[in-house]
Amino acid sequence: MAEQRLKVNKTYKLFINGAFPRSESGRVYEAGGVNVPLASRKDVRDAVAAARGAQPAWASRSAYNRAQILYRVAEMLEGRRDQFITELEQSTDRTMAAETQVNNAVDRWLWYAGWADKFAQVAGGANPVAGPYFNLSLPEPAGLVTVVAPNVPSLLGLVSRVAPAVVSGNTVVVLASEESPLPALSLAEVLATSDFPPGVVNILSGRQSELVEWLASHRDVNVVDLVGVHEAALHAKARELAADAVTQVITHQPQDNDWLGGTSQSLELILASTEIKTVWHPKGR
Amino acid sequence: MTSRSQEPTYLTMTTPEASHPEFNLEYAAAPESTPPVPIEEENRLYINGEWVAPNNGEWFTTYNPATAQALARVAQGSEVDIDRAVLAATNAAAEWAAWPGSERAKVLFRVARVLAERAREFAVLETMDGGKPIKESRDFDLPQASAHFFYYAGWADKLVYAFGGQKHQPRGVVAQIIPWNFPLLMAAWKLAPALATGNTVVLKPAETTSLSALALVRVLEEAGVPPGVVNVVTGPGETGAALVNHPGVQKIAFTGSTAVGKEIQRATAARPVGLTLELGGKAANIVFEDAALDQAVEGVINGIFFNQGHVCSAGSRLLVQESIADHFIERLKARMATLRVGDPLDKNTDIGAINSPQQLEKIKTLVAAGVTEGADLYQSEVSLPTEGWFYPPSIFTNVALSHRVAQEEIFGPVLSILTFRTAEEAIEKANNTAYGLSAGVWTEKGSRILWMADRLRAGVVWANTFNRFDPTSPFGGVKESGFGREGGRAGLAPYVQLGAMWGES
User: ipTM of this model?
Assistant: First the structure.
């Protein structure tokens, strides 16, 4: 008995405003052989409040700084590949080899990191209006984005939607894969040590049937990404609720559901949670 | 209320100077220490991933401009060495170009990170070999060099977005010749976009400042840049000429003087070789009477005295509106009096050493010409170090457009001041130069900034700021300041050949 050391088990928790609370509901569900918080409507509200509070300061960081922070995530994730591979192997997520999924998640952070100081150069520009005016259009972040991550691939799918949202200066509340939430909840530990200010990314676990409506209908949400919602009635309901506050809905799906292919990462996805601002200024002595 | 028999102590406190005569509160030097910088006595050429001795066995000495003492011996590359380097770059080209962009990105990201990690050592080396103030190498050259690699790393796997959907291929072997004013940063400006686009490189640093480029290739090597992808051949102008004339080179990027730029353009006239030239400048800083004068004074001072005026975009001409000219010049003189000239390793130093005795001689010659031609010279009263190569901050007033100091690039801490009455006259005078690199406009009226920017013949126009640089922002000149851009998306274009659109055959 004394020879055998007992393992210290990790309590999987939510990630809200840089802290790791349990669900305020006190409820859990079982996934991957452990208890996982069953987030409530109140947890959604707390996470949205945190994301809204963090957004102006995050957007006002220089693009270079945001790039470095996303790059730092890749560095941190690379160093913890083994943990994520183990968690994926314990899960029901069998879309691809666990190692492939983790490697691509690292590389995806890297790819989007490089976009931070480039997407405005590609998507914006001067407009040669017919008059003595300087006229410049640039994309700016929509504000607060809620994401319903796909069930599979549970890690790569979430990274593929969170990274393009935060890179432009949005803040995010993401609902993890319902079936395989463990990699997402552990990703919070990576984000917490990557110089992201608290509240920029908030991660919840729980039931889509309980939370999607609130993620879509909260009036402080600017964009909702429904990529992970496959139940048709829930999808339609969420889109309808989004109309209450004219919240923009992202419905892009990777072509053929291929999360490694060319359409799984794109400039279009960054721009989906931005809007163009145009500035006019007269020219004259 | 009781009366006090004694003065409160704070009124009787003596100054530190009084109690400790050896303690000078007026000024205390804060020199950066040099031990973290390993300088090898003998610096070889870097060809095909190996450090090789020069073929002809010739070496030259590189000096610390602040002390005029020898720092190290550097290999003098000959035609044979250039030939070997171009061959190595040629042999490495196909494999490097075939690397996935995402993997080239990773290598360049690593370079950016390591440069930031080892910033202190590089900053001290740069200051020792080049003479620039440590606060500039520490706060400008190093952060910018790292940021440049970081920015272009991000392009390496996104090139399809950079050229509007056109197919792109690397040029192949690129010859890059860089100047001595920002040795490491210019190496970064050249290497980062060339490597991101999949080219291989032969780099020729300036003769007086080879060391930081050689230190940089050690970082590249550590980061995983394969042998032959970057080669460095040190040496004087003849080494550069051999590189330019080598038929194995597909593209040449040169930063330096307009005279040499013209020679390169002539020398390559008969070859289908890509060419970009970033040459001299004689920028006008234009100050209107409504400008925020505190900022304008700082901007004009920074514009001409940054890096001892060894900046191609230096604001070496001041055009100040006549109504405020006398007042503005007085304020400039007052600000000049506070500039510290001296040991570049001292963290308090504003103006360091002139890079070489040749450059110091050139500055003296042009200043003498200014005096002879009738302009009024004012120099702030500074005691220059007795060792090394230094020059005091200087301004010329009563300058005519025809004076040599108004037309020729001095590349030193010398400002020529002219006046103007109207915006049209300011444009006329600002554009009255063979150069066209940069310009500055100081006014609180936004519409006037844009009106001026439309009319200034310059590649970069700074408004209410000066000498700002960023990896995302294209830089380069027009007219005899050259052609082609470095920085930004535009900075990728010189390093690729474009073909049909993707999706077309």
Answer: 0.95
